[in-house]
Amino acid sequence: SIDHINWAPCGVRFLLSGGRYTEVWSIEKGGILKTIEHSNKVTCAVWLSNDVFLVGYENGKMATTN
Q1: Measured in whole angstroms, how far is the alpha carbon of residue 1 from the centre of its chain?
Q2: What is the mean predicted confidence (pLDDT) over 50-57?
Q3: Is 1 a residue whose pLDDT tops 90?
Q4: Torsion angle of alpha carbons 57, 9, 14, 38, nearest 10°?
Q5: Could you give the CA distance from residue 23 to residue 35 in angstroms, rounded to a whole number?
Q6: Phi and psi dihedrals of 18, rounded to 5?
Q7: What percent of the chain has pLDDT over 90?
Q8: How does residue 9 score in pLDDT terms, banded at 50, 70 and 90?
């Protein structure tokens, strides 16, 4: 299930995250650009730039992804 939706600063890409997965979508391409499986449950996600985002995990750790 989807818990979070976050738009990139450019307004073209967005993140869908829920459980242990994050998907990067593009409205220009009309679909998923990337699916990432995390080792822990994602509790939050935020874009740091148009290409890099930060995810926070249930265990209190964080990681950047691009």
Answers
A1: 14
A2: 95
A3: no
A4: -20
A5: 4
A6: -175, 140
A7: 91
A8: very high
